[in-house]
Structures are given as structure tokens and as C-alpha cells.
Design a protein that fits this description.
With 476 residues, the chain is α+β, with helices and mostly antiparallel strands. It has 15 helices and 14 strands.
């Protein structure tokens, strides 16, 4: 091997600055925060944001779109067909592995779909989702094998991510408790870690390979902060103007005394140290009566007293418009559009389709990444522990069917027009059926029907050729 090729087999960059040499021989537990906001405002910031209705709606829409059609399996090697050259024996082994992993998924608790939803939700909000792999003794036809007892999602608060000197994720640090049953790796004196292969780590958005990942909520922070800052002011507005205010007017001077005797809550006359009644202004007495009226059903006032009601003409439209603006910004920041989970706007049809395409790209990316992670870290692990490391190459792929956020009818119409114009060939029908989410076609039945149609056409052509036309010879 030439020296240049040998260099490609090694990784040299371990860190930066003067600490590179010091980090080369140690492992490091990463901090809980994942970016500048969680560093400054606390690692739980994005979980607080997720309690907002608009944020939660966007996160849930994305997570449900990823796993809505379930988690499936696909054999690594397809059975041979007329057009394929796959080895039948290899394809049969791959089919057996697929059936085994499918049985593991069916009996897992919680279900694989539930675990996939939690992994997706956590990765959208917190940058990464983690689930511990727990195996158990197989039963039935899997006796003697290790099957999947459960893929158990764990909160990021329960552990730290441990990386080596090059930033590769190598283990989880669960602290000092809850590690008795795990196969542990020694790190340093008094420190024990759960090894990397014991859990699924899903961090679909990364920069510079950082295993913490990036939260989808980061671009929505400004809109969320504005919304939460305005909410207290809207609450004050409702308290002040949702019910009418009261204005009390005492009788004009000369009609009633300016000062009246003060009384306690029971209406008893209050006197001073000299035995004379304590006097208060008529306005003070009326104010007390009106305040007491708020918790009563009736009020009695002196003749000539006027009571008016002050009702606000505004209904808080500015607040409501501001909340709608913030909600739409939140939806666009997370999903790429506000058209999936909010009412329609005045945007053009083209703008809405572009927004749906952006959301579809994000969802398709999450589906692909989650399928790849579950394939590599779960499906291949199940095959390796039972059939050997070499068998990993035939482990089934984990797939999540494509999420359709676009207009299905419009896409089907376009495909139909392309077929009508002869642009598409019938050999492409199966792939297009899968794209549209239609049941697979029975190609053998289609071939048989086409053969029968050709046979009938040939018979009809033969019969027509034998028909004698009266007078035809005379004309000749």
C-alpha cells in the first residue's frame, strides 16, 4: 500500500488549540447543553418551549408524519426474479433474517412504533434521542436465540454522552446508580459507563459531527420568546377590559354631605378615642361600597348617587394578531410551512406547495436517517449476536414508508398524463405505485391478462380474414 493510501485509513484531527495533546488520552462527558441558548438559559429550554401549543403542534406533526405509516423491514437481498441475478441461497438466508427481526419487533415492549416516535420527538426537541436495547431469551421458533425484549427510550436528563479524543460517541454515563445489570466499560477510577452498542442514538441534525445534535426548535426561539413575553400583557388586558369597569359619582356639593361616618364590614359605626364618629369622604365611602359590590349581588346608595359602567370598545385584536404571527413563525421555523397544522393564509397556491415541499423534505430526511440508525444499531445488532458478525451484511433494512404531504390527487393526475402520452413505461409502474401508496400490482396476473387479450385479438383477426364480402369478385 502506498503511503498516501495508508494516510486515508487513519483519523488524525483530535481537537483544537493548546488542549489537543491533553485530550488525546482521555474521554470526556459532554455537557447537557447543546447550543448557545441551552448554555445561557438552561438545558431544559427546548422542553419548556415544547409546552407551547404552537411548538408542540409543529413537533407532533413532524414526529407523527415520520412514523404514521409504521416501521417496516426490507430484506437486504431480494428473492431472484427474471431480471435479477441474486443468489437464491443468499436471498433465502436474508429472508429468514428478515422474518426473525420482524418477530423481534412484534413482541418488543414498548412497540417499535412507540419507540421510534419517542426517538423522533426527542431528536426534534432536544437534538438527540436515545433508547436502551434490552434483549431476552427467545421463545417458540426462536428458542436458543436472543430476541428483542424492548427498545426503551431514556430521557437525556438521566445520562451524559461520553466521547473519545476525536469526538466519537463511545458510551453513556448514567452516574452512580442504575447500572448493575449493564455490561460496563471502565473509564477511570470510580467511573463506569454503558457501552455504545447498548443503545440507539438518534441525532439527525449535526454540525462538525457533534453527537448532541441540533434542535429543530432553535430557529423558533425568537417567535416563542415574543409570544411568551406578550402573554402577561394580554392577561392584564383581559382582567381590565373583559368585564366592564364601574364609575361612581357622589351627589353634587350641597345636596349631600361631603363627609360621612365610617363603618366596619358589619356596618357598625366607628368612633375615635374621643368617642366621636370617624369621618371619611363621601367618595371613599362610595368606593368601598362599589368594591364590596363585586362580591355581592346588590348595593344600596344614597339618593343622587350615579353609577356608570365603562366598557372597552376594543377586543384585543392587536394581541390576537400578534399571537397568530408568532404561531405562524414558529410553524415555519420548525416545519418549513404553516400550512400543515394551521389555517390557510393569503399565500398563493405556489407558495403553499413550496412550503409543503420543504416540510416533505424534512420529514423524508428524518425517515431516512431514523431507518438507517435503526438498521445499523438495532437490526444488525440482533443478527450479529445470534448469527455472527459476518451475518450483519444480510440484516434486514429498517424502513419507514414515505410521508405524503403533497397533493396526492394532483401527483396521481400528473403520472396518469405521463402514461397517456407514452413518456412512462409499464416497467415503472411498481415504483410509481409505491410512491402513490397504492397496493402492489400482481405482475403475473397482468401478464396473463395481456396474453389472453393478444390471443383473443388474434382469433378475431383470423375470423375477419375469412369473411366473404358479397360482390367483391365482381368489382374486381
Amino acid at each position: 500500500m502506498n503511503p498516501e493510501a495508508a494516510l486515508l485509513l487513519r483519523e488524525f484531527v483530535a481537537g483544537g488549540g493548546d488542549q489537543a495533546s491533553a485530550l488525546a488520552a482521555i474521554r470526556k462527558v459532554l455537557p447537557k447543553y447543546i447550543d448557545d441558548l441551552t448554555r445561557d438559559f438552561g438545558a431544559e429550554l427546548y422542553e419548556r418551549m415544547a409546552t407551547d401549543d404552537a411548538v408542540n403542534n409543529a413537533v407532533d406533526t413532524m414526529a407523527l408524519s415520520v412514523i404514521a405509516e409504521g416501521v417496516g423491514l426490507e430484506a437486504r437481498v431480494a428473492m431472484p426474479t427474471e431480471t435479477s441475478t441474486a443468489d437464491p441461497e443468499t436471498a433465502e438466508i436474508a429472508a429468514e433474517y428478515e422474518a426473525f427481526v420482524a418477530r423481534c419487533f412484534e413482541t418488543a415492549s414498548p412497540s417499535i412504533d412507540e419507540a421510534a416516535y419517542e426517538l423522533t420527538w426527542d431528536s426534534i426537541v432536544n437534538g438527540h434521542g436515545d433508547a436502551e436495547i434490552v434483549l431476552g431469551e427467545g421463545e417458540g421458533e426462536d428458542v436458543g436465540l436472543l430476541d428483542l425484549e424492548g427498545l426503551r427510550p431514556k430521557s437525556w436528563k438521566l445520562f451524559g454522552l461520553v466521547v473519545d479524543a476525536k469526538g466519537h460517541l463511545v458510551a453513556l454515563d448514567p452516574g452512580t446508580e442504575g447500572t448493575e445489570e449493564a455490561k460496563l466499560l471502565p473509564l477511570e477510577a470510580g467511573k463506569r459507563l454503558i457501552p455504545r452498542y447498548k443503545f440507539v442514538h438518534f441525532a439527525p441534525r449535526r454540525r462538525a459531527g457533534r453527537p448532541q445534535g441540533l434542535s429543530f426548535l432553535r430557529p423558533a426561539y425568537d417567535a416563542w420568546f415574543l409570544k411568551t413575553s406578550v402573554l402577561p400583557e394580554y392577561f392584564k388586558f383581559l382582567r381590565q377590559f373583559a368585564s366592564p369597569g364601574i364609575i361612581g359619582k357622589t351627589p353634587p356639593p350641597g345636596v349631600a354631605p361631603d363627609f360621612v361616618p365610617d363603618t366596619d364590614e358589619q356596618g357598625r359605626l366607628l368612633t375615635g378615642t374621643d368617642g366621636n364618629p370617624v369621618l371619611i369622604t363621601a367618595e371613599q365611602a362610595l368606593l368601598r361600597a362599589l368594591l364590596a359590590w363585586q362580591n355581592a349581588v346588590a348595593i344600596a346608595v344614597k339618593g343622587g348617587t350615579e353609577i356608570d359602567f365603562l366598557q372597552s370598545d376594543g377586543d384585543g385584536k392587536a394581541f390576537l394578531a400578534g399571537f397568530d404571527y408568532c404561531d405562524r413563525r414558529i410553524q415555519r421555523a420548525i416545519l418549513g410551512t404553516d400550512g400543515l397544522s394551521m389555517g390557510s393564509t393569503n399565500d398563493s397556491l405556489g407558495a403553499k406547495e413550496v412550503g409543503q415541499d420543504v416540510a416533505g423534505l424534512r420529514i423524508a430526511y428524518l425517515k431516512g436517517r431514523l431507518g438507517a440508525v435503526l438498521t445499523r444499531e438495532l437490526s444488525e445488532l440482533l443478527i450479529e449476536v445470534n448469527f455472527g458478525k459476518e451475518a450483519r451484511a444480510l440484516a434486514p433494512r429498517v424502513v419507514l414508508t414515505r410521508a405524503e404531504q403533497q397533493d396526492w390527487a394532483r401527483e396521481a393526475e400528473v403520472i396518469g398524463n405521463l402514461f397517456a402520452k407514452g413518456y412512462l413505461h409499464k416497467s415503472q409502474q411498481q415504483a410509481l405505485d409505491a410512491r402513490l401508496g397504492l397496493p402492489p400490482r400482481d405482475m403475473e396476473m397482468i401478464a396473463a391478462e395481456e396474453a389472453e387479450s393478444r390471443h383473443q385479438a388474434a382469433l378475431i383477426a383470423g375470423e375477419v380474414g375469412r369473411i366473404e364480402v358479397p360482390g367483391a369478385e365482381e368489382e374486381l
